Amino acid sequence: MKIIASAVALLSTVSAATGTTYHEDPTMHLTGWHNRNQVSPEEDTKPVHIGSIQAEPVHWNLTASIDKFCDFMVSAGAANMDLVALSEGFLSGYPWFNFFASTYDMASNSKISQLFAENSLQVGSAEMARVQECIAEAGVNVVLPINERDDKGSQAAVFNTALFIDKSGEIIGRHRKTLPSFTERFWWTQGDGTDLVVVDMPDVGRVCSLLCWESYLVLACYTLMAHGCEFLVVPTQDIGSIWESHVSDIAREGRWYVIAQGQVVAPYGEAMQRSAIAGTHTQPGGSQWYPRLLEGFKNAYGCTGSPLIANATETVNRQNLLRGSSATAAKESQKNVVDTVSWIPEPVPLDQAVEKCATYFMDGGMSIADPNGRFLVNPIHSNYMYADTVNAARSGCVHSLGPGIPEESHCEFVEVDGYNRDEEFIVLANASRGEVLASKLYQDNVGNYARTDIWKVEWDNAPQDYIFETAGNSNGNQHGNGL
Ligand SMILES: *[C@@H]1O[C@H](CO)[C@@H](O)[C@H](O)[C@H]1NC(C)=O
Ligand SMILES: *[C@@H]1O[C@H](CO)[C@@H](O)[C@H](O)[C@H]1NC(C)=O
Ligand SMILES: *[C@@H]1O[C@H](CO)[C@@H](O)[C@H](O)[C@H]1NC(C)=O
């Protein structure tokens, strides 16, 4: 059945339904709506402990990535976090090479795509059960971004998905990215109208997610606002000042918390190695895109010459350039890649590729903005160029309101056993539902600021499938077998 109705009209007709899995309950995406007026003043002001994880998955190795995920869950549980969020495609890896590799080396694509799909995660699988167990043991609610293997049709498609898993380990909602950006569409299939999901999470409130640039879709944001979302989780791969201003803007626009995680990709780490391995299987002699790309990145990031810091000033300049302007950065890094490809006579041997450059290829940049658009957690970058990133990044938690006014600290670092605290960690910040409520006094798109008499938003929430059976057969038989 195809349902087209205004979101506002629909909302008043649904009944409460929590604690079921997403596929059993077609009204799941509305479960967040019901209990706002049942929240006691105590519950409203109690701190919601939000943990934001900055870490690199073990790219294209699902087992190892789940191991790592579980290690982080142990620390999150020990620190009594209520809601934990991770970066886009955490299980098991964002295809960081997609802007370059999709069209650059067609011969390698299918092999890499195979690796990508094989290490994606399917709801209902044994691997998924392990993830749910770790979450239940830790007792924290999680927004978990995964590469989700399709559970229908050929089961070859992969979605860019955020799963909402509550602290008992139950999957209470699923959001599939409705619009992967640009070359991302090469790797991920897009979700449908059922994917605008708001869930109630115990001890937290109403949680929703949009993945990366999907949060630029104003009507997707609006639909989630109309469902009363209070905590918008935005895992991404974007980085830099333009992205940061967006995080702050949509926080103020939605009057909700915006919790954003970025990618961590070490320049010569697992991610590049594994992609290279996939590529070299494609044709006799192996594909060359990875070593050449690597050399391109070394140039783009100013680590030419010595594999370590060739010239720190130059490195920092280029880093700032890349962070400062996406357009310029893209142009600059593209230029270097292209230049490199045209003049490098021999690819860099893989054993040289493990040497570290002065900076990460992607260094996180997580942030959390409050419902007024102020950064509760200033953007934080992982970087072993600093002697002690945690201390350097503590400024991410410190807020200065002006000369003479004591600084306030709004978040804290939680280290994870077995990981380098300067590079991978969890940041804990306290939020509250009361803060969301209070900020809506000033401006509320789906309340005192709404003008539904002028503008009306329609949302088609019909589930899509690859085949729709109809009862058109004269026998009333729905299976088309003529019996
Ligand atoms: C994936 O990780 C597991 C666990 O760390 C390891 O045993 C396995 O060899 C890895 N697989 C590949 C293909 O590297
Ligand atoms: C390092 O790079 C900067 C900026 O390009 C340049 O001005 C400086 O001369 C370089 N220093 C050395 C020692 O090469
Ligand atoms: C968060 O709240 C807890 C109390 O629930 C408190 O102990 C902790 O210091 C707070 N942390 C921050 C960073 O405000």
From TrEMBL:
GO terms for molecular function: catalytic activity. SUPFAM superfamilies: Carbon-nitrogen hydrolase. Keywords: Signal. InterPro entries: C-N_Hydrolase, C-N_Hydrolase_sf, Nitrilases_CHs. Residues 1-19 form the signal peptide. This is Nitrilase/nitrile hydratase. Residues 48-396 form the CN hydrolase domain. Coiled coil: none annotated. Belongs to the carbon-nitrogen hydrolase superfamily. Nitrilase family. It comes from Seminavis robusta. It holds the Pfam family CN_hydrolase.
